[in-house]
Write a structure and sequence with these properties.
The chain has two domains: 162 residues, no CATH class; 125 residues, Glycoprotein, Type 4 Pilin (2-Layer Sandwich). It contains ten helices and five strands. Strand 4 and strand 5 form a beta hairpin. Helix 3 packs antiparallel against helix 4 and helix 3 packs across helix 5. The radius of gyration is 30 Å and the shape is elongated. The N terminus is likely disordered.
Length: 292
């Protein structure tokens, strides 16, 4: 859905349909004359072309964000081509025409409509219409170049601040991410888990199995990793808010065959978070909603 965010903003920026009484006959006549001078249908088409150019850029930007692989780029182009082909069958000018009539009737009096028509009949008015699509295109490009990075930076900061209020969430996400990479490594290595501590784990997983290795939990403390002597079990541990590991949290205790361990929920964020062999063994009470 992110691809269409910018388009949605542009379309919302267009005047909204007014829930007002129908325009008078005189208003409608003046508006139709104004639209003819503005060549509104053609202007709308050019506006949508400018919007579509931004959509295409977003498709390609997303492909680049994935690593700029040729296959992703080709898929992005194919997806946009299908989208553009479908959009070409829509008459946006006709689709919006009646809405525009009501909008202009809502905001302009008969005299003001006559004044606008007179303006667009002048050479300056004609030029305003001719360069409208370029104004919109360059305006959107300026928005992408200058505004979008600031908005993305702001959103990143807001999300980070929100995550700090619920540090267990990102910590759990990191632990799951590392666990997936550990298990993928084991799949390629005779079903045996990597040996060594957490720092050694990074050397074995990054970048083949994990592009960005989580160094620390949300309490700014390094995770712990332990593996059993037979390399058939592993455990990833966060020390919690006090950054002190519990005496037994880094010990792997063999379980009886068929025995299923239950998650232990703790009421203090100082307690460790423990992930072993694909499941969490210990979490804070606040994380219960994430396990449903």
């Amino acid at each position: 859905m992110r691809r269409f965010t910018f388009v949605a903003v542009i379309l919302v920026a267009l005047p909204l349909f007014a829930t007002e009484p129908n325009p008078s006959q005189r208003q409608r006549e003046l508006i139709e004359k104004l639209f003819a001078e503005m060549n509104l249908s053609d202007t709308t088409t050019k506006l949508m072309d400018a919007v579509f150019a931004q959509v295409e850029k977003q498709f390609l930007d997303e492909a680049a964000a994935k690593g700029n692989e040729p296959e992703d780029i080709e898929e992005a182009k194919e997806l946009f081509a299908a989208f553009r082909a479908g959009a070409s069958k829509i008459d946006f000018g006709e689709l919006l025409h009646d809405a525009y009539v009501h909008i202009y009737a809502k905001y302009f009096t008969e005299q003001e409509l006559a004044d606008l028509t007179a303006f667009y009949a002048t050479p300056t008015g004609h030029k305003a219409i001719e360069v409208m699509d370029e104004l919109m295109r360059e305006g959107m490009q300026a928005g992408v170049q200058h505004v979008q990075p600031k908005l993305e930076e702001l959103m990143t900061r807001v999300i980070a601040e929100q995550e700090k209020k619920r540090p267990w969430r990102s910590t759990m996400k990191d632990m799951r991410t590392v666990a997936v990479a550990v298990e993928a490594w084991a799949t390629d290595n005779e079903e045996l888990y990597p040996v060594g501590d957490y720092s050694a784990l990074k050397e074995q997983l990054e970048p083949t199995y994990l592009k960005k290795f989580p160094e620390k939990d949300m309490w700014d403390h390094a995770y712990a990793y332990v593996v059993s002597a037979d390399r058939r079990s592993y455990r990833i541990v966060s020390a919690g808010s006090d950054s002190i590991f519990e005496w037994d949290s880094r010990r792997i205790v063999p379980t009886k065959e068929g025995q299923q361990q239950q998650i232990r929920y703790r009421d203090r964020l100082e307690e460790d978070l423990i992930f072993e062999n694909g499941v969490f063994l210990q979490l804070p009470d606040q994380a219960k909603s994430q396990m449903k």
